[in-house]
Amino acid sequence: MMNPTIELNGLEVQLGSRTILHGLTGVLKSRAIGLLGPNGAGKSTLINTLLGFHSPSKGSARVLGLDSHANGKELRSLVGYMPENDAFISKMSGVRFVRYMAEISGLPPAQAMERAHEAFVYVGLGEARYRPVGTYSLGMKQLAKFAQAIAHGPKVLILDEPTNGMDPPARKRLIELIREIREASDICLLLSSHLLRDVEETCDEVLILRNGQIASICNLVEERRANRKFLELETIGAEATFTSTLEGLGCECAVFTNGRIKVVMPDSVEIREVFKVAADKGVQIRRMNHRRDSLEDIFLSAMEQTGAADGRI
Amino acid sequence: MAVYKRRYNSYTGSLTAPWSRFFVLTRYAFADLFKSRFFVILLILSLVPTLFFAGYIFIANNKTAQLLMQLRSAGLFTVETQYFMVIMIVQTQLAFLLNCWVGPVLIAGDLTNGALPLFLSRPFSRAEYALGKLAVLGLLLSAVTWVPCLLLFSLQAGLAKSGWIWPHLWMIIPIVLCSAIWILMLSLLSLSVSAWIKLRIVATGVIFISFFVPAGLGEMFNAIMGTYWGRLLNFSDMFRLILAKGFRERTVPLGSSGLNEIPVPAAWGVLIFVCLLSLVILNARLRARETVRG
After folding, report:
1. How far is A243 from chain B (nearest CA, A)?
2. Within 10 A of A235 (CB to CB), how many other CB atoms are there?
3. How many angstroms separate the CA atoms of A55 and A78, rounded?
């Protein structure tokens, strides 16, 4: 049986006299896991603990079945890590920096050089690879950090705020790369971000932390499946007969101002039937949003709760 | 992840032996050092005295050269323990200067932009990281201390003939051992300063200060208290004392007055204490995690 990606057993981490993580317990089985939470929730501490930088004061954390403390070195041999803060050697050229890191991960010099060039071209910094990393823009530094995280071909990719400081096109490109890597290989992904959209676009499961405790563990795939018939309509000319007809089909409707209607549809009703009813009743549908219960809703719901009893919402 | 395909592929090739990976740091550090013209000049200058010492040995063992130089006293050029002690003292002081230039940048460069988590998030421990950096100074300072000294010893053994080597063979041990403790102390001290201070000029200054200020304070203590124990704060003198005893000499060449009164174990204790203190500082500074406030 395959090991879960991350397994937390009453994990408690203290830094000095302060307890940062309070007995986290949970199992995350998906290959792409998002880590969410407000500032100070303990996301970076959890990542540092998984990497073996912090020792748990109680409990344990396992990644792919390896204990972060007892099997730290073995675990780190599987990991590619992109830290949140600046992490580079400013005077080194980008490609030499990535080669250096790959060699420390155990790649022979020739292979490390080859992989460094490939990683740089892959992340879109091919033209800038011979420039010192210190001269890169913030977005380029992020990409260089990403390149060093993937150059040695890790099994687990840990990305801490990967899109920080990136402009929208660069962010989009990086998210595409992350998705591509996830789909093209058997790599496991742990992504910590403040941007819910980043997590929503790349992850299958989300761990939401709040004040060092688990606020929620949510399987996004299941959530998406459960809410696939949720419609938001903007209409002109909709009258009570339109919503009553839809309700007659088994839908639940909520009418707002300016012709906005929310419709929760049963599995038996198709969207084209909504169009048909609208045509019959002379209603113009000016906008239709076929949306799921978004991660934002899930996150806000988790933040409102004082602590989910079983870690699920 | 081939360049032409622009696709990600995981790495499935061979890996280097885990024990050898610390040497990657050493290799990269040397590559960076040799890009500096100033460093290359400093290294060459550190080896220049060895040429003069070699010339001295040549003249001491060459009657024709002595006649050509019109040297009448045959005992003017002697190559015995005192001579090798002087070589050691000169070369170890040059090693100190070299260390002041090289040491401060070794760790500071990684700490300045937070690269340490990148090293330590790999199958690479803090001890291996420190060992990799220590090897840079170890190899470099060896190249200007015991290695040239042993070469000169070999030269003398070759030129003197008539069995000179056998009664002097024991000198190899103090040459290597005394160099080792000096190199270790210098390396650890400069690495700990490098881990603490990021600016090279300041770090170099701190290394100088850590040698000369305690020595000055020790002299003040001696003058006020009428004792000689203040010499313990003079690391160079402690090294010379260990060197003199290693070479079975009663007096310490180029040392301060009253130095012979200090017991040799105390001198060893001082140098070992500096090493341990440096290790404590390194242990505190070489952390992957970020500072936690509050």
Report:
1. 50
2. 21
3. 19
Q: Is B218 in contact with B234 (CB distance < 8 Å)?
A: yes
Q: What is the ipTM of this complex?
A: 0.89
How many other C-beta atoms are found inside a 10 Å radius of the C-beta of residue B3? Answer: 13
Residue B44, pLDDT > 70, answer yes
Alpha-carbon gap: A96 to the closest alpha carbon of chain B (Å) = 10
Three-class DSSP category at A259: helix
Sequence-distant (6+) residues with CB within 8 A of A310 are none
Q: Nearest Cβ partner of A89 from B18, B115, B287?
A: B115
The per-residue pLDDT of chain B, averaged, comes to 90
Spatial separation of the C-alpha atoms in residues B183 and A296, rounded to whole Å: 59
CB A35 within 8 A of CB A207: yes
> pLDDT above 70 covers what percent of chain A?
93
Instruction: Write the DSSP string, B38-74.
Output: HHHHHHHHHHHHHHHHHHHHHHHT-HHHHHHTT---G
CA distances from B54 to A163, B48, B97 (A): 62, 10, 22
Q: Does some domain include residue A88?
A: yes
Contact A111 B125 (CB under 8 A): no
Residue of B nearest to A45 (CA): B289
Look at residue B2 in the predicted model and tell me its pLDDT: 55
Tell me the HSE value of A255 on the side-chain side, using a 13 A CA sphere.
Answer: 14
Do A38 and A100 lie in a common domain? yes
Residue-number span of the structural domain to which A260 is assigned: 229-290
Which residues, 6+ apart, have CB-to-CB distance to B37 below 8 Å? none
The reply to whether residue A86 touches residue B15, judged by beta carbons under 8 angstroms, is no
* Cβ contacts of A239 within 8 Å, gap of 6 or more: A281, A283
The two tokens of residue B123 are 């199958």
Residues of B in Cβ contact (< 8 Å) with A152: 11
Q: Tell me how many domains chain A contains.
A: 2
Cβ B13–A107 below 8 Å, yes or no?
A: yes
Is A140 in the same domain as A168?
yes
Among B183, B170, B176, smallest CA distance to B81 is for B170
Residues A192 and A280 in one domain: no
